[in-house]
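User: Here's a chain of 413 residues. Predict its fold as tokens.
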Amino acid sequence: MNEEVLYFPKEDIVKATDRFQTPFFLYEEKKLRSNCQIFRDSFKKYFPDFWPLYAIKANNNPEILKIISSEGFGGDCSSESEAWICEKLGIETMYTGNYTTKEEFEFVKNKCLILNLDDLSMLGAVAELGMPETLSFRINPGVGKGFNKDNVFAGPDAKYGIPFEKAYEAYQKARDLGVKHFGIHMMTGTNVPLEESNYFANIVEKLFDIIADIKEKSGIEIEFMNIGGGFGVPYRPEEKSLDMDFVAKSIREVFDKKCKELNLKEPRLLAEPGRWISANAGWLIGKVHIIKDSYKKFVGVDFSSNDMPRPAIYGAYHHVSVIKTKETIEKETVSIVGRICENSDQLARDRELPKLDIGDIVVIHNCGGHAYTMGHNYNGRLRRAEYLIEENGNFRKIRRAETIEDLYKTCEI
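Assistant: Prediction complete.
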């Protein structure tokens, strides 16, 4: 069983539930920093000038971003608000939108160090605002991976990126418009299955072939390569963790092979991890308040799928731990459900757990990434407070819970 999945700071969670109203999100600074250091150092071992960019969409809490930035990470932004908060925090960023409006380009243009365009058609809007000296394009290499079909971000069904056959046209036009320095980017999937450790090396090899084609047809040298994110994390205890040193080493081998084979100058390597950095450093904490014996047993907790929508959207699995008010060895099969008026509001279906009682603490794992940031206010439900366990063991509130008044601040009543 994978301890990375099973781990949770039990004693701290008990203390936190004694002090704070449930439900809430809880993050651990020590784990977050450790993840940053492992990822950063695994790549810098083979690529000394490697630049990691944290995917802001995974967790946009300013205090979390400050910690990650202090470990040498820039930011990967894909919206105005993500660019805005990074500028406020002094984080250098690369902006990758898709189907971006001219107004959005105008907003982010001077906030982000690098613009990364999703399509050739976007050049017109950028040119009207003034072409930057450095520009990157997101390429669809024709193949992708993900944990389900909606999380495959490349290939014929993906809405993202320039088809690789047309890449050189984009670079030629950008050069004609005054761009002097060029990068290339891909993001082919999210949470790529852990058994696909060679996937990243294989897709980098494909990207080098595209770079060689661009150089042959346009004479343009690519100065940096952003391989995106998608680094899978285990959600089930029986799943293995991704060997990041193996991934980085295998990419190094591809760089050495393809640069020599294709007579290319080595580009600087960038990557955009999100969930790999923060997912297992956060938990959603709540308590049991209803137990319903129906055609099956449903356990009602005080959080819902609006707090962490992945199971409702994708049918995603998240490990569940229970902290009992009274210890028991008895187990039962139950579904953990919330209060949203949708039957998809089931955070764990038919899960064997210790027999639950009213007041027991329920812990949802892997909620440090793509959890709070995916949350919403459907049914008028409020979003929860976030707390940080600092390295010194102290608790700190890093976001207050919403109030009903917050929901109506933009209305006149």
